[in-house]
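User: Can you recover a sequence for this backbone? Please restate the input before giving your answer.

Assistant: Of course. Working from this structure:
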């Protein structure tokens, strides 16, 4: 099953959801709207991050770039920094 990443919308987060958390869900499952631990509002991040992260465990950064993937490393709350590939150098969640 795919891993979906969630980013909390609230500033008041718990240790579980602080900076984002991951949930394993079926593709057809309803996206979560709240943290399962503290109930604060959250939203699902585009799931391609999860796919790339999954691939990263099988391919080196160099191979990822050679295959046209862009790999991002999560640097903080809603912020990703590029580690390989041709995409933007960083992605910040626009909130
Ligand atoms: Zn929480």
């Amino acid at each position: 099953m795919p891993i979906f990443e969630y980013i909390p919308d609230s500033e008041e987060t718990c240790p579980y959801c602080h900076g984002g958390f991951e949930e394993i869900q079926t593709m057809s499952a309803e996206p979560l709207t709240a943290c399962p631990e503290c109930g604060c509002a959250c939203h699902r991040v585009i799931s391609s991050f999860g796919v790339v992260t999954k691939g990263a465990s099988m391919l080196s950064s160099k191979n990822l770039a050679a295959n046209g993937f862009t790999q991002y490393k999560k640097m903080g709350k809603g912020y990703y920094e590029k580690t390989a590939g041709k995409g933007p150098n960083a992605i910040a969640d626009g909130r």
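That completes the design. The chain has a mean pLDDT of 80.
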